[in-house]
C-alpha cells in the first residue's frame, strides 16, 4: 500500500514551477537542499532570496512523524490547540518504551502490559485526530518512515532528532520538539532559520570492510558534535550514487550527531530500487518524471566551492573502518589506530557485548553483511567471544531476515534478538550486572554513546561502528582487533582470517511481512473519547504556562552552572525516566540530574541558596519554586546537544527556571526553550562564564524593550556584595518574542483558535 499518494502527486505537480521561481530570485544554479526548501515555502512560489544562516523562513512541511516518548507531550499540546483533525498526514510510532531483556516476544508482551495506559492514550488520540498509528513491535520510527512514507524531494518534520534518516531517500527531514509538530499539525507554518550548506563530495567506491557508517563516523571526526550546527549537509558524487539507499539513510541518520539540521542526497537509481522493493513503484515513477529537480543543478556539483558554505571531500576507495567513542560520537579512530589509542587512553579492550540494529543500521543490507561474518564463525571453527544482540528496525526487515535464514545463523553464534524497537540504544536495556558499575567496553552500530546511555552504567565505554565491524569485534572479543590485517585463533588452535563482509542491497526475493503493525485512524474521529485518569502517574493533562509578568526579571538564583558536555540526556535522562514522558510533573524529578556542577564537579548536588545546603537539582529547584523565586541555569558549549525531547525545556519551565545562559546551544533545544516561553541566552563574551559564582543572584534587564538583535543585560550580584554586569545575546525574532511574552507559543495558538 502506498500512503498519501495524492499528497505526493501534489508536491510533485508544484515542484518544477517552485524550483524555477526560486532559481529566478536566487539568481544562480541551486543545490538540492535549496530546491526542496524553496519548493516548500509557506507562501508558495519564492518572491525573494533568503540569506543562509540569517533569515527566518516559514515552511510548509508535507508530513509529521512522532515516536511514543515524544508524541505524548506533542499530542497533549495538540489536544489544547482546538483542532478536530491534523492538517497534514501524521503518524505515531511505538518504539521507545520497550525494555530489551529476554527476547523479542517476552519483552514486547511485558511492555504492552506495563505501558498499556500510554499506548491506549496514543492510539485513541491518533484515532480521534486522523493520525496513523504504528503499534508496539511495528518497528523504529525512522525505519518505518523510510519504508513507507519518505519520498524524494519531500519535506517532513518529526519529534525525534534522527528524523533526518529520511534524507537517505532524498528528503529534507528535520527533528523538532513536540511544540513544532503541534504547530504543523494545527495547520500553521513551521519556521526555521535558512540553513547554511555543507557539501560532502564522495569520490571512489566503498569496498572491503568499509561501510556507509564509516562515512559518517569520518565526517563526525572532521566536523565534531558542533560542526554541523545550523547547516544542511548535502552529499554528492560518484560515491554517493554507488551506495544503497539505506546506506545513505545511515549517513543522514547520524548527521544528528554533528548537530546538522539535516542531511540529504539527490534522487538516484538506488532510491528508485528501494522505493520499488518497498511497494512504492508509483512513487518511483513519479520521481522519475521530475528527476532533474530532485538533485542539484549540474553546475553545483561541478563547482561545489561556489555554492556551498563549506566543502569536504572523502574518497570512499580509501576509507578505513572507524570506531567512534567512548562517550562522544565524534572521537573517531580508524581501526588500524585502535591498538595505540586504547593503550594510550586506558580504554578496556575486552569487548563484552556487540549490539547491532537501531534506527541507524538495521537495513536488510546491514544485516545480510553482518550475517556473512556470523556464518564464518562455524565455517572457520571459531567461537564468538562477546555477547551479541540484534534489534531489527522494523517488522518488515525482521520478518524478511527470518525468512531468509539470517536470524537462525545469528542464533548459532548465540545472539539474542530483541524486539523491533529502540531498546538498548535509548537505555531500555535491562543489562545483567550493569548496576555493579564495572568498567567495561561495548561496541554498537547505534548513533549515540553518551555516558550511561545504553545501560545506565557510567563506566561502560561504548564505541560506535558499522554493523560489520561490530560483528567482527564481537567475534574477536577484542576492541583492537583489526579484521583487515589480524588473524584469530580458532578452536583447533589454527590462525584464521575473516573474509570481508558481503551482502545484498535488497532482499533478492523481495520483502515480506505478515502484519506490519499499522492501525489506520477513524475516518471521522469526533466521537472518539480520549481519557486521561487524573490519578495517573504516567499521563497528565497540561496546564498553560503563565504569561510573562511584563517586568525585568530580578533576583534569579543560580540553580546550576553546568560544566562541560551537557546533552539532553544530562538535562532529562532517558532509560527508566521514559515512563514519565507524558507526565510533566513526575518527569521533572530528573531535571539536570546528569549535569556536572562546576563548583564541586558532582552530579545532582547543588547548593540551595536559601538554606546553604547541598541537595539534588530537582529538589533545590522545587524549593525555589515554593518560595516564589525564579532561577537561572548556566551552561557550556553546545548545551542541549542530542535529542529533540522538549522535556529538557518544559521541565525547567514547569519548575520555575526563567532563563538558560550558555556559551552556545544545539539548535533543537534552543528552539524548544523559546517555544516554551523560556529565555535562551548566550554569553556575548564566552569568558563571562567564569564570572558566574555559586551564590549569585542574577537580574535580567532589558526585557521591557526586548527586541531582535539587541543583547540583554545581566547583573550578577555576588555573595560578597559586589556586582558585575555582562551582556547576553539572543536569537529571538519578533514572533519568538511574542512566545516569550505569552508564556509559550502554544498560548498564542490556543488564543487564536479560541478567538
Ligand atoms: C534519542 O535517540 O536520544 C531519542 C530518544 O530518540 C531522542 C528522542 C527522545 O528523547 O525521545 C531523539 O533523538 O530526539
Ligand atoms: Fe530509537 Fe536510538 Fe534511533 Fe533514537 S537513535 S530513535 S533511541 S533507535
Description:
The chain is of the alpha/beta class and 755 residues long. The protein is built from 26 helices and 30 strands. The strands form eight sheets. The chain has a seven-stranded mixed beta barrel with strand order 22-25-26-27-30-29-28. It has a six-stranded mixed beta sheet with strand order 6-5-2-3-4-21, sandwiched between helices. β12 and β13 form a beta hairpin. The model has no long low-confidence stretch (mean pLDDT 97). The protein binds alpha-methylisocitric acid (MIC) and iron/sulfur cluster.
Break the fold down into its secondary structure elements and pairings.
Blueprint: H1 5-26, H2 32-39, E1 56-59, E2 63-67, H3 68-78, E3 90-93, H4 104-114, H5 116-129, E4 132-134, H6 141-148, E5 155-159, E6 172-175, H7 178-185, E7 190-193, E8 196-203, H8 212-223, E9 231-236, H9 238-241, H10 245-253, E10 262-265, H11 269-277, H12 281-289, H13 298-302, H14 304-307, E11 310-315, E12 322-324, E13 332-334, H15 338-345, E14 351-357, H16 364-379, E15 387-391, H17 395-403, H18 406-412, E16 416-417, E17 440-444, E18 460-464, H19 467-476, E19 488-489, E20 495-496, E21 518-519, E22 553-561, H20 568-571, H21 584-587, E23 606-607, E24 614-615, H22 617-626, E25 631-635, H23 647-655, E26 657-662, H24 667-675, E27 679-683, E28 697-701, E29 712-717, E30 723-729, H25 734-742, H26 745-754
Parallel strand pairs: 2-3, 2-5, 3-4, 5-6, 8-9, 8-11, 9-10, 14-15, 14-17, 15-16, 17-18, 22-25, 25-26, 26-27
Antiparallel strand pairs: 1-7, 4-21, 12-13, 19-20, 22-28, 23-24, 27-30, 28-29, 29-30
Helix pairs in contact: 1-2, 1-12, 3-5, 3-7, 8-10, 11-12, 16-18, 16-19, 25-26
Bound molecules: alpha-methylisocitric acid (MIC) and iron/sulfur cluster.
Amino acid at each position: 500500500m502506498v500512503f498519501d499518494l495524492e499528497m505526493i502527486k501534489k508536491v510533485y505537480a508544484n515542484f518544477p514551477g517552485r524550483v524555477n521561481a526560486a532559481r529566478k530570485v536566487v539568481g544562480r544554479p541551486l543545490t538540492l537542499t535549496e530546491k526542496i526548501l524553496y519548493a516548500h515555502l509557506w507562501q508558495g512560489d519564492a518572491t525573494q532570496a533568503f540569506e543562509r544562516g540569517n533569515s527566518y523562513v516559514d515552511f510548509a512541511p508535507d508530513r509529521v512523524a512522532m515516536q511514543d516518548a515524544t508524541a505524548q507531550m506533542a499530542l497533549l499540546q495538540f489536544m489544547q490547540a482546538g483542532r478536530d483533525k491534523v492538517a497534514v498526514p501524521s503518524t505515531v510510532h511505538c518504539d521507545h518504551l520497550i525494555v530489551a531483556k529476554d527476547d523479542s516476544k517476552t519483552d514486547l508482551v511485558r511492555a504492552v502490559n506495563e505501558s498499556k495506559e500510554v499506548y491506549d492514550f496514543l492510539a485513541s488520540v491518533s484515532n480521534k485526530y486522523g493520525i496513523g498509528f504504528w503499534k508496539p513491535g511495528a518497528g523504529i520510527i525512522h525505519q518505518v518512515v523510510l519504508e513507507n512514507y519518505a519520498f524524494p524531494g519531500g519535506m517532513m518534520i518529526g519529534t525525534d532528532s534522527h528524523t533526518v534518516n529520511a534524507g537517505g531517500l532524498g528528503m529534507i527531514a528535520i527533528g523538532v520538539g513536540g511544540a513544532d509538530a503541534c504547530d504543523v499539525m494545527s495547520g500553521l507554518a513551521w519556521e526555521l532559520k535558512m540553513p547554511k550548506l555543507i557539501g560532502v563530495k564522495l569520490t571512489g567506491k566503498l569496498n572491503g570492510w568499509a561501510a556507509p557508517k564509516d562515512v559518517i563516523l569520518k565526517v563526525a571526526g572532521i566536523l565534531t558534535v558542533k560542526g554541523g550546527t545550523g547547516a544542511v549537509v548535502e552529499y554528492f558524487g560518484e560515491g554517493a550514487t554507488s551506495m544503497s539507499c539505506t546506506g545513505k539513510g545511515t549517513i543522514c541518520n547520524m548527521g544528528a550527531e554533528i548537530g546538522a539540521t539535516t542531511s540529504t542526497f539527490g534522487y538516484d537509481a538506488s532510491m528508485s530500487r528501494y522505493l520499488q522493493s518497498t511497494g512504492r513503484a508509483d512513487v518511483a515513477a513519479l520521481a522519475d518524471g521530475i528527476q532533474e529537480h530532485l538533485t542539484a543543478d549540474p553546475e553545483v556539483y561541478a563547482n561545489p566551492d561556489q555554492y556551498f558554505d563549506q566543502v569536504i571531500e572523502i574518497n570512499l576507495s580509501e576509507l578505513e573502518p572507524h570506531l567512534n567513542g567512548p562517550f562522544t560520537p565524534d572521537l573517531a579512530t580508524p581501526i588500524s589506530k585502535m591498538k595505540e589509542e586504547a593503550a594510550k587512553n586506558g580504554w578496556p579492550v575486552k569487548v563484552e557485548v556487540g549490539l547491532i540494529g537501531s534506527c541507524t543500521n538495521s537495513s536488510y543490507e546491514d544485516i545480510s553483511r553482518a550475517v556473512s561474518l556470523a556464518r564464518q564463525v562455524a565455517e572457520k571453527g571459531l567461537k564468538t567471544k562477546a555477547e551479541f544482540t540484534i534489534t531489527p528496525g522494523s517488522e518488515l526487515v525482521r520478518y524478511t531476515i527470518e525468512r531468509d535464514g539470517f536470524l537462525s545463523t545469528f542464533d548459532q553464534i548465540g545472539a539474542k534478538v530483541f524486539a523491533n524497537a529502540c531498546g538498548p540504544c535509548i537505555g531500555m536495556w535491562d543489562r545483567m550486572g550493569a548496576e555493579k558499575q564495572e568498567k567495561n567496553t561495548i561496541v554498537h552500530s547505534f548513533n549515540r554513546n553518551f555516558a550511561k546511555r545504553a545501560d545506565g552504567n557510567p563506566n561502560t565505554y561504548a564505541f560506535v561502528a558499522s554493523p560489520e565491524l561490530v560483528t567482527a569485534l564481537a567475534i574477536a572479543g577484542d576492541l583492537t582487533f583489526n579484521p583487515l590485517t589480524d588473524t584469530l585463533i580458532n578452536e583447533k588452535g589454527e590462525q584464521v582470517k575473516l573474509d570481508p563482509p558481503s551482502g545484498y542491497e535488497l532482499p533478492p526475493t523481495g520483502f515480506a511481512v505478515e502484519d506490519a503493525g499499522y492501525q489506520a485512524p477513524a475516518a471521522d474521529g469526533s466521537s472518539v473519547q480520549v481519557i486521561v485518569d487524573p490519578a495517573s502517574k504516567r499521563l497528565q493533562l497540561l496546564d498553560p504556562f503563565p504569561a510573562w509578568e511584563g517586568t525585568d526579571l530580578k533576583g534569579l538564583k543560580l540553580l546550576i552552572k553546568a560544566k562541560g558536555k551537557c546533552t539532553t540526556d544530562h538535562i532529562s535522562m532517558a532509560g527508566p525516566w521514559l515512563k514519565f514522558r507524558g507526565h510533566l510533573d513526575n518527569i521533572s524529578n530528573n531535571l539536570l540530574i546528569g549535569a556536572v556542577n562546576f563548583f564541586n564537579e558532582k552530579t545532582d548536588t547543588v547548593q540551595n541558596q536559601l538554606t546553604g545546603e547541598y541537595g539534588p537539582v530537582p529538589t533545590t529547584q522545587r524549593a525555589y519554586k515554593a518560595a516564589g523565586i525564579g532561577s537561572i541555569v548556566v551552561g557550556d558549549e553546545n548545551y542541549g546537544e542530542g535529542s529533540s525531547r522538549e522535556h529538557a525545556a518544559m521541565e525547567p519551565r514547569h519548575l520555575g527556571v526563567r532563563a538558560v545562559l550558555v556559551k552556545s546551544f544545539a539548535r533543537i533545544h534552543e528552539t524548544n526553550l523559546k517555544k516554551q516561553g523560556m529565555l535562551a541566552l548566550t554569553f556575548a563574551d564566552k569568558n563571562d562564564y567564569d564570572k558566574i559564582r555559586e551564590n549569585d543572584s542574577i537580574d535580567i534587564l532589558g526585557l521591557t524593550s526586548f527586541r531582535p538583535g539587541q543583547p540583554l543585560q545581566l547583573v550578577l550580584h555576588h555573595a560578597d556584595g559586589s556586582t558585575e554586569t555582562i551582556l547576553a545575546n539572543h536569537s529571538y525574532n519578533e514572533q519568538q518574542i511574542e512566545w516569550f511574552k505569552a508564556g509559550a507559543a502554544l498560548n498564542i495558538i490556543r488564543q487564536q483558535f479560541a478567538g
